């Protein structure tokens, strides 16, 4: 985790292991870290749940609180086919097929705070026989492997939010049967039935008969105005849902909510919040190498992605009390840069205090070399010792990062996941 947070470009197992191994006889071998990703007995799904529990605890989520689960997918380009799941897949950024992986991703949101949750690799059907798993569509991965395992605090309510590509009557019904709600975009040719009738019509045809009114919402600090109309309809195998039609100057979009009590404005706000997952894709890649993994196995890649998500969350909650700073200065990028800066400042102060002021230049230079090695992140990370199922720093270096490491190890039951 320390290497992920501090790394700039080396997100290979080799690069990360060098970032957390002391340059002495106690250093772990590269094979230990390969085993941690490839063969160790731990589950990325279990870690994701522990991660979610930590988030819920930090945000004090309880009975009556609303939790959003945004689901999407993203493309990770690869130059060769040695990596599991690599195929020619559609890259929406370039608008064409390219060689790479498709990752089904998700993020949790409570209020205005959002963090990544769980990612799974999509394996194309023609490659599925290479794995000991049945082929699953992206929609099946989203529901069965991401939404279903998530456990909420007692009394909290979950709404799953996704785009029209993930819609399916059976998937929506499954989520409803688990006691959750769905908000999603609908394709214009989806057939719905006005209540108490047996015939169906396209949703865009129905929307053309409705009365619209102007509605304004504020999301991510920006006000947006739409002409909206809504109607409660029936969808076979799903039941009653609320349909919302939203017009801007040149576009009409259609959305669905299984919560009939939500207003059109509330539903549009949830739809707009879905864009937070795009920020997760962008910033987790830029800051933690989300798509720059150089692992080959599907399980190893999914485990790596889960550690990236946990690193994001730890940095997001670091110095959480300093609300004014973050409101003024921005999000994850600023937080991470500030975190690195804080570590470097504390390290320099510690080194300055340790160097003998009256020693000669040669002796001071030697002391500096030794102290730089001692107070590197590698050494700092390894200076934590286990005490009563927690980690206590063996020196007073950098209270900021001492707190950050405590956050990692305070997640209950997580200690056994890390290589000894």
Q: What is the string of SSEs from the N terminus onward? A: HHHHEEEEEHEHEEEHEEEEHHHHHHHEEH
**What form results from the Cα inertia axes?**
globular
Number of strands: 15
Residue fraction in strands: 15-25%
What does this molecule look like?
- The protein has 15 helices and 15 strands.
- By secondary structure, it is α+β, with helices and mostly antiparallel strands.
- The strands form 2 sheets. Strands 1, 2, 3, 4, 5, 6, 7, 8, 9, 10, 11, 12 and 13 form a 13-stranded mixed beta sheet that branches. A two-stranded antiparallel sheet has the order 14-15.
- InterPro entries: IS701-like (IPR039365), IS701-like_DDE_dom (IPR038721), RNaseH-like_sf (IPR012337).
- This is Transposase.
- Pfam families: DDE_5.
- Keywords: Plasmid.
Blueprint of the fold:
Blueprint: H1 2-6, H2 13-20, H3 30-38, H4 44-58, E1 66-77, E2 87-91, E3 96-110, E4 113-116, E5 120-122, H5 138-147, E6 157-162, H6 169-177, E7 181-186, E8 191-194, E9 201-202, H7 203-207, E10 213-219, E11 222-235, E12 239-247, E13 252-257, H8 264-273, H9 276-288, H10 298-317, H11 323-329, H12 332-354, H13 361-374, H14 377-382, E14 384-387, E15 390-393, H15 399-410
Parallel strand pairs: 1-6, 6-7
Antiparallel strand pairs: 1-3, 2-3, 3-4, 3-5, 7-13, 8-9, 8-11, 10-11, 11-12, 12-13, 14-15
Helix pairs in contact: 4-10
Please provide a brief summary of the model.
The chain has 420 residues and is of the alpha+beta class. It is 40% helix and 24% strand.
């Amino acid at each position: 985790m320390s290497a992920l947070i501090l790394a700039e470009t080396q997100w290979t197992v080799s690069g990360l292991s060098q970032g957390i191994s002391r340059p002495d006889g106690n250093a772990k071998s590269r094979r230990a870290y390969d085993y941690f990703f490839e063969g160790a007995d731990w589950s990325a799904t279990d870690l994701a749940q522990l991660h979610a529990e930590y988030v819920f605890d930090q945000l004090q989520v309880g009975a009556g609180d609303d939790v959003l689960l945004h689901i999407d997918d993203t493309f990770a380009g690869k130059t060769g086919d040695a990596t599991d799941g690599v195929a020619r897949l559609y890259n929406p950024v370039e608008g064409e097929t390219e060689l790479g992986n498709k990752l089904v991703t998700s993020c949790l949101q409570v209020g205005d705070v959002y963090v990544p949750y769980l990612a799974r690799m999509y394996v194309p059907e023609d490659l599925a026989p290479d794995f000991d798993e049945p082929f699953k569509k992206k929609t099946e991965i989203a529901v069965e492997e991401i939404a279903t395992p998530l456990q909420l605090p007692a009394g909290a309510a979950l709404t799953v939010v996704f785009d029209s590509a993930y819609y399916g009557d059976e998937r929506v019904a499954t989520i409803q049967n688990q006691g959750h709600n769905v908000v999603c975009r609908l394709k214009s040719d989806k057939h719905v039935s006005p209540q108490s009738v047996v015939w169906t019509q396209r949703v865009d045809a129905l929307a053309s008969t409705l009365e619209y009114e102007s509605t304004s919402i504020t999301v991510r600090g920006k006000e947006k105005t739409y002409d909206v109309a809504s109607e409660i309809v029936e969808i076979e195998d799903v039941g009653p849902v609320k349909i919302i039609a939203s017009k801007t100057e040149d576009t009409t979009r259609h959305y669905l909510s299984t919560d009939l009590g939500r207003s059109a404005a509330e539903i549009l706000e949830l739809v707009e919040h879905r864009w937070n997952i795009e920020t997760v894709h962008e910033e987790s890649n830029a800051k933690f190498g989300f798509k720059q993994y150089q692992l080959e196995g599907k399980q190893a890649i999914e485990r790596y992605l889960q550690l990236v998500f946990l690193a994001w969350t730890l940095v997001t909650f670091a110095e959480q009390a300093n609300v004014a700073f973050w409101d003024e200065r921005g999000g994850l990028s600023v937080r991470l840069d500030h975190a690195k800066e804080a570590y470097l400042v504390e390290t320099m102060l510690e080194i300055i205090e340790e160097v003998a002021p009256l020693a000669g230049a040669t002796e001071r230079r030697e002391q500096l070399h030794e102290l730089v090695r001692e107070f590197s992140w590698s050494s700092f990370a390894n200076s934590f010792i286990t005490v009563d199922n927690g980690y206590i720093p063996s020196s007073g270096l950098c209270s900021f990062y001492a707190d950050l490491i405590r956050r990692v190890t305070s997640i209950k039951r997580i200690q056994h996941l890390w290589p000894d």
